[in-house]
Design brief:
- By secondary structure, this protein is an alpha+beta fold.
- The protein folds into two domains: 4-67, Arc Repressor Mutant, subunit A (Orthogonal Bundle); 72-160, 2-Layer Sandwich (Gyrase A, domain 2), CATH 3.30.1360.40.
- The protein is 50% helix and 16% strand.
- It is built from seven helices and six strands.
- It has helices at residues 4-7, 10-23, 30-39, 46-56, 79-90, 110-119, 142-160, and strands at 59-61, 64-66, 93-97, 100-104, 127-130, 134-138.
- It has a four-stranded antiparallel sheet with strand order 3-4-6-5, covered by helices on one side.
- A hairpin with a 3-residue loop joins strand 5 and strand 6.
- Helix 2 (10-23) runs parallel beside helix 5 and helix 5 (79-90) crosses helix 7.
Amino acid sequence: MQSKRDTGEGPGARRRAIVELLARGPIASQEELGERLLARGFDATQATLSRDLRGLGVVKGPLGYQLPTPAQGGDGAPPEVRLALAVVTWVSSIRVAGHLLVVRTPPGGASAFGLALDQAGNSDVVGTVAGDDTVLVVAPTPAGARRLARQLERLQQRSAR
């Protein structure tokens, strides 16, 4: 398998993979993180992982590396980390309808989730409209809507653990 380090996808894709992995729960060590990334096709050195973890604002807790909570400075974290936190905190359900996503949240959560999604700068998001407990997300294509739904569902798996 050719590693993604060799394909030119760059650090953005690797960092998104790190956020997705950490959204599922803490990872005990950088070695374990490196192995999980390698299974996804990302070959990263320990120095690269250290820079990525520091750049993402990842914290090391008693169970290992994890995404920061707002109390740990998560509000100042990069957009992809804030999105992961918003998904875990606010998203109740995700439904695709053509090139649209309907994302349900508890009452009062739609605005916070919509803002995090807008700030993440995802190319599959044309825009969002947030009500009280629902966010309508416009994607450029039906394939983009499905891709975004899968990404959000992977992040949401953290809350199911």
